[in-house]
Amino acid sequence: MIIHIDLDGVIADFDKARNAHPLSKQSPYKGRPDKLPGIYKDLEPIPGSIEAVKKLLDDQRFEVFILSSAPWDNPDAWTHKRLWVEKYFGKAMRNKLILTKRKDLVIGDYLIDDLPWNGAKEFKGTWIHFGSDAFPDWEAILQKLENP
Ligand SMILES: [Mg+2]
């Protein structure tokens, strides 16, 4: 079973970093936090996310990928996402990182994503809406995936 997992808002706490960034309320970054310099570099993990993803990685039933979008006009973000994944999941995870604006074109059984954008809503497998009433946290997601 192939599981894709979004990065920002699911594994990494983008909102916390945005709120703390000194330029977040200034033009041209207001409303475009994905353009903030260095915003993706040192994101804190969302509580429980690293442990949950590692559990899925260790489960022989699953093949796990990170499926994220990155801003075209903030190319540092691409590097920082790649380094972030290695920092928390090790070198073996580097080539499991997929960056695209068209998540709907990626094949898989599940996509865990907090937002419908960038093709998440149109994903051909099952979209698990992280943060929704049905899946408010990682505990609920593990419950579903580990007990089919
Ligand atoms: Mg997200």
From TrEMBL:
Coiled coil: none annotated. GO terms for biological process: pyrimidine deoxyribonucleotide catabolic process. GO terms for molecular function: 5'-nucleotidase activity. InterPro entries: 5'(3')-deoxyribonucleotidase (IPR010708), HAD-like_sf (IPR036412), HAD_sf (IPR023214). Belongs to the 5'(3')-deoxyribonucleotidase family. This is 5'(3')-deoxyribonucleotidase. It comes from Gracilimonas mengyeensis.
